[in-house]
Structures are given as C-alpha cells and as structure tokens.
C-alpha cells in the first residue's frame, strides 16, 4: 500500500467519513500534498511513514477538512425514516400532513436542511415558479427531500453527491416520491475533478462554493462555466458553526464572477439568484 492509499484507508476509519468514495479522498490528499510538498517528501522517504508524527498530522488535518465538508452535516440514521416514508407513501394518493412530518424528520438529520426547515416555503417562493420543469442540485445533501415545499408537479430533478451511498439513499427517495410527481436521479460527482451537468431550468448550489474554493482556489469559475441553466441559485452561510457572524465582504470574489443577481437572506444563509444565464 503506497502513501496515498494508506492515508485514504486510515482517514476513512473514522465512522462519519467511511461512506466517502476513495477517489474523492485520494484527490483531497493529492491537493494537500501540492500545498505541502515538504511533508510529502518527508513521508515518501520515511522507512515507516505510518509510524511518523507527520503522517498522523496529515490524517488529523484532512479529517478536519472532510468533517467540515461532509461529516459535520450528518446528524442521524436516515434509512429508517426512509423506510417509514415508503410504507406511508404506498397508502397515499397525495402529500398530506403525515408525509410532510416524515419529510421534516428526514431534513432534520442534515445540519443545513435542518437550519433551512422553517424557511423552505419562503425560499422556493422566491426562486421557483410553474415554468420550472428541471432542477439540478449540486452537492445536494438532503435538500431534494424538501420537495413538498416546492409546490411544483412533474419535476425532473438531478442531484449530485460525493458519496455513492448518499446517492443510493436519494435514488431510493426519488423512487418512493415518483408517484407524487418527483422524477429524480442522484449521480456521484467529484467536483474537484469532473463537472458534467445536464441542461436545466434552475440549478441549486447551496453552501457549496465557499467550501470547495477553500480546497482549490478558482474552482468556482470552472464549476459555474459548466452549468447550463436559466437561473442559478447559490447560497453561503452567514455564520460559522460556532455562531460567529461572517462578513459579507468575503463574498466579493463571487460577486465579481456573476452578473444580474439578486439576494435575500434567511437565518444563517444568504442566497444569490443569478438570472439570464442561457
């Protein structure tokens, strides 16, 4: 097992990161070493690199990055709730209060969707209308499960995720909800390497770009260039996880690469609506 393979294996020993794909973690390791060439050289020339202090430091730092990207948002077991939803949905002809309550419980298992839960009606009223037929949700998390608040029928919905297991969950959700007009699919995409997206009416990038920009400077431009949509909706947190307020000046870099945008805010999140993109 070479250095990169060993790091991927040991990083994923942490339970909250175990479902991440090896390819994505490997790419993160490579990006880390590009910025820390001295550490890479030390480890590659170490006779027992797994026992070295630097090796343990790399694992700690990369786990911290992955925790911020992925692990911190996972708050519970969603498979059991999905099973409950499936059993209830079989007996329903429309989305009723019982179905909505199960959706609320699912959305509460992801930090971002939990924070957004009381505002989904407002969010979708501002960014969706009856002309929207196709949606792309990049690094979606559990956001597709906010479908009951979209008030749109017969929507074509594509979600992308880092983890194959998360895609499996979303595809099961889409299968259950198809009878209610949600025609969806989830695909695994590593944003650090590939940006092939379908043409859509609306694209969501909720709390995505600043995280990946921190991993690879300039990647936002590459991602945005590949998105073919009429309306782009991008959001950023306005507070850190500890509650510290984030200044809006930090978003100047994003405002320079988009045009014709409007903004609105909910608690802990600012949304940019970018129109006339195609």
Unreliable stretches covering 5 or more consecutive residues: none
CATH topology of the largest domain: Rossmann fold
Number of strands: 7
| Beta content | 15-25%
Order of helices and strands: HHHHHHHHEEHEEHHEHEE
What Rg is obtained from the alpha carbons, in whole angstroms? 20 Å
Largest sheet: 7 strands, mixed
- Overall 3D geometry? globular
What would CATH call the architecture of the largest domain? 3-Layer(aba) Sandwich
Structural class: alpha/beta
Going across the major beta sheet, what is the strand order?
Answer: 3-2-1-4-5-7-6
Could you give a short description of this structure?
With 278 residues, the protein is α/β, with parallel strands linked by helices.
SSE blueprint:
Blueprint: H1 3-11, H2 22-35, H3 37-44, H4 53-69, H5 79-89, H6 97-107, H7 111-116, H8 120-127, E1 134-137, E2 155-161, H9 164-177, E3 182-188, E4 200-206, H10 209-215, H11 219-226, E5 229-237, H12 252-255, E6 261-266, E7 269-274
Helix pairs in contact: 1-2, 5-6, 5-9
Characterise the protein shown here:
This protein is α/β, with parallel strands linked by helices and 278 residues long. The chain folds into two domains: 67 residues; 157 residues, Vaccinia Virus protein VP39 (Rossmann fold), CATH 3.40.50. Helices cover 42% and strands 17% of the residues. The protein contains twelve helices and seven strands. The chain has a seven-stranded mixed sheet with strand order 3-2-1-4-5-7-6. A hairpin with a 2-residue loop joins strand 6 and strand 7. Helix 5 packs antiparallel against helix 6 and helix 5 runs parallel beside helix 9. The protein starts with a helix and ends with a strand.
């Amino acid at each position: 097992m070479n250095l990169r393979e060993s790091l991927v294996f040991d990083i994923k020993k942490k339970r909250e990161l175990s479902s991440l794909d090896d390819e994505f973690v490997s790419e993160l390791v490579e990006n880390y070493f590009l910025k820390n060439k001295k550490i890479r050289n030390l480890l590659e020339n170490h006779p027992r690199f797994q026992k070295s202090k630097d090796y343990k430091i790399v694992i700690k730092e990369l786990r911290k990055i992955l925790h911020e990207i992925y692990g911190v948002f996972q708050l519970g077991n969603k498979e059991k709730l999905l099973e409950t939803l499936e059993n209830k949905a079989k007996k329903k002809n429309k989305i009723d209060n019982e179905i909505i309550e199960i959706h609320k419980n699912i959305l509460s298992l992801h930090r971002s969707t939990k924070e957004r839960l009381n505002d989904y009606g407002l969010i979708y009223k501002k960014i969706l209308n009856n002309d929207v037929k196709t949606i792309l949700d990049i690094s979606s998390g559990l956001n597709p499960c906010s479908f009951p608040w979209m008030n749109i029928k017969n929507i074509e919905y594509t979600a992308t995720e880092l983890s194959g297991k998360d895609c499996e969950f979303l595809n099961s959700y889409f299968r259950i909800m198809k009878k209610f007009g949600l025609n969806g699919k989830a695909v695994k995409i590593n944003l650090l390497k590939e940006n092939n997206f379908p043409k859509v009416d609306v694209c969501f990038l909720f709390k995505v770009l600043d995280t990946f920009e921190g991993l690879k400077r300039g990647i936002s431009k590459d991602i945005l260039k590949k998105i073919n949509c009429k309306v782009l909706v991008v959001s950023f947190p306005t507070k850190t996880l500890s509650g510290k307020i984030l200044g809006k000046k930090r978003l100047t870099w994003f405002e320079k690469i988009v045009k014709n945008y409007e903004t609105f805010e909910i608690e802990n999140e600012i949304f940019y609506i970018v129109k006339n993109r195609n």
